[in-house]
Each structure stands twice: as C-alpha cells, then as structure tokens.
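DOMAIN: structural biology
WANTED: fold as tokens
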Amino acid sequence: MRSMTETVPAEPLEPAAPPAPGAEQYPALDLANSAIDLPGGHTLDLLRSPADANRWLAERGLAPADAGLREVCAAQLRSLREQIRALIASRVDGHPAPAGALAAVNEAMTRAPATAPLHWDATHGLHRAATHPTTRILEHALATLAADAADLLTGPDAGRLTACGSPPCSRYLLRHGRRQWCSTRCGDRARAARAYARRTGRDA
C-alpha cells in the first residue's frame, strides 16, 4: 500500500512543471522548488539521489557533470533546500525568520572562498580556477546558493515572493502583476477547482 507522502521515483506520475517565475533568475528559488508536491499526496524530489543532485547542480553550472557526488553531499544539498524554504516561507507569511535556518544559511555562505583562487601551470600559465575535490565542489555550490538566497530575501524582489495558489503545489515564485500560479498547469488546476466549487455550491 502506498504512503500518502510517498516520494515519486524517477518516472513521475506527471512531468515536472517548468521553472516557477523567478527561479531562472535566482538559483536559490529553484533549489527551494526542487521538491514538488503532486496531486495524490506524492512528491517529486529532483535531488532524490546523488546522481539527481549532481545533475541538478551541473545543469546550473554549479558542479561538473562528473563530480561524482555521494549521498552525504546530496543530503547536505537537500538540507540547505529545507533551510532556504523555511526562510522564504517566513518572508511570505510575515513571520520571524527561524533562527536555525538563518544559522544554516549563514554557515553555508562561509564554507567556500567567494572567488576562485589563482593557479599556474605550464599549459595555462597564470589563471583562476576552482579545482577542488568533490567536497570542496559541494561547499562552493552551497555557498553560492546560500548567498543567492540572501540576495533574494533582502533585495528588491523580496516583496514579490509568494506561494503558488494552487494546492497541493508547494512551490514559491516571484509574483508578476496578479498572477498567483507557478505554472500554467497549476493555474488550470485552480480554475478547474473553482469551477467545480461553483457547480456544487461549495467554497473554493
């Protein structure tokens, strides 16, 4: 018997929605949305395995495709996702920021150098490159995502953060005008729910 909160495997019940508005501008928002709640109590986790986490980072230029992340690294990325989600939720709901989430994001920002160090070799001469083992690659990615979250939460777009208005979707987006949906699919779902409520005399 399936659990009502079962994580969907590699073949989801429905394809993942396109990035929510703002997610292409802010990788931290994209990270926050990388666990997608689906109808029926299912969740599609784009960071479910080390290979999934490596693919997600590589697609955003945050790690080499062959970085070979292990489960401990994927778990750290998923943990940062939850801390960033907690900070976004507190901003959207107007609640105080959770102290644990603040500490975790601040700690992630200090785990890697802000810039790539200088190197020299006979082939390339003097150049800058972040040539680190896997753990250092992950630390650099976490620091970049944490800094991006701080920029999002304190910058001019912070006031546009909102939650998708189509249950059960749990994604966040940057609001454009009166739009409340993270995707066309969620908008269609919400409109269908309102139409059904009108037909049956129930509240939407």
Notes: The chain is about 45% helix and 10% strand.
